What we know:
Strand order of the largest sheet of chain A: 1-2
Number of helices of chain A: 5
CATH topology of chain A: 434 Repressor (Amino-terminal Domain)
Oligomer: heterodimer
CATH class of chain A: Mainly Alpha
Number of domains of chain B: 1
Largest sheet of chain A: 2 strands, antiparallel
Strand content of chain A: 5-15%
Shape of chain B: flat
Order of helices and strands of chain A: EHHHHHE
Structural class of chain B: mainly alpha
Distance between the termini of chain A: 19 Å
Shape of chain A: globular
Number of strands of chain A: 2
Strand content of chain B: under 5%
Number of domains of chain A: 1
CATH architecture of chain A: Orthogonal Bundle
Radius of gyration of chain A: 11 Å
Largest sheet of chain B: none
Low-confidence stretches of chain A: none
Order of helices and strands of chain B: HHHHH
Mean pLDDT of chain B: 89
CATH superfamily of chain A: lambda repressor-like DNA-binding domains
Radius of gyration of chain B: 18 Å
Mean pLDDT of chain A: 88
Amino acid sequence: MAKTIVNNIRRLRFDRKEMTQQELADKIGVTRQTVNAIELSKYSPSLEVAFKIADVFGVPLDQVFQYASPTRNKS
Amino acid sequence: MSFREKSAWISFVLIFIFGALWLRNLIRVEFYGLRQDPMKFFFAILLALIVAEISLHIALAIQSPRDARTPKDEREKLIDLKASRIAFYVLMIGAWLSLGTLHLPGSNRLMMAQALMGSILIAVLTRFATQIGLYRRDA
């Protein structure tokens, strides 16, 4: 299966006391709909937004986003 | 439905109504010989469109003040760019076809101007329809 950009944002939000999409959106300066689109892998964010997301969760970028098969890291 | 999508729907529906009224009047004047100044009617419905756009967007902003204040993010800007690019092609094709109407028998500059106006309307509708489609795809 072709590789694509997948992410762990949903799990990371859950681990941070169930942070809402709106809270994350406010912290990184995008709309809630954009966070939802990123989470569902329907939109690949810019490098800047990707780093901001990683910064909010306090983890390295590769713990948020991976280039892998879509079946992996579904969380 | 997001604030931007609602805004795109408002513009799409209003411009569609505007276009339908404009076309209806044009047909009545051109084919049924209605004695009416087409420009007077055009500017009347244009004014109505502007008033309706402003009023509905104010109402939308009152309903979602936070979303109305939030500037467009990168995804929304990208959607705008994609929609504008597609609308540009539609406009260019329409503009060239409008120029071609000058070669039709019995044509005149007013007919060309009306064809150009139709092209602009179709391009604008294409832009909003594309925006709505892209917003819905990401939802």
